[in-house]
Amino acid sequence: MGQFLTRAIWVAAGLALVVGIGIAWMASNMNTASTTGTTTVSKEFQNPVVTGTSTTP
User: Keywords assigned by UniProt (predicted)?
Assistant: First the structure.
C-alpha cells in the first residue's frame, strides 16, 4: 500500500509540473507584450528561441 501511495504522489507532482508549465507557456503566447511570461518559460526550458520571441517595451 505504501508503494502505491508513493507512486500516486509522484504522478500527481508530475502532472502539476506539466500543467503549470503548460499554463505559463499558454499565458506567454497569449500576451506577447508581457516579457515576464516568456522569460519564465525560457528559464524553465533553457531555450534561447523562446527568449527571442519576447517583446521589449
Answer: Membrane, Plasmid, Transmembrane, Transmembrane helix
Q: Which domain holds residue 31?
A: 20-57
pTM over 0.70: no
51, 38 Cβ separation under 8 angstroms: yes
The one-character DSSP state at 47 is: -
pLDDT per residue as tens digits for the range 25-49: 877 776 654 555 455 554 555 444 4
- Number of folded domains in the chain? 1
The answer as to whether 26 is a domain residue is yes
Under DSSP, is residue 26 helix (H, G, I), strand (E, B) or coil? helix
Outline where the chain has alpha helix (H).
2-30, 35-45, 48-53
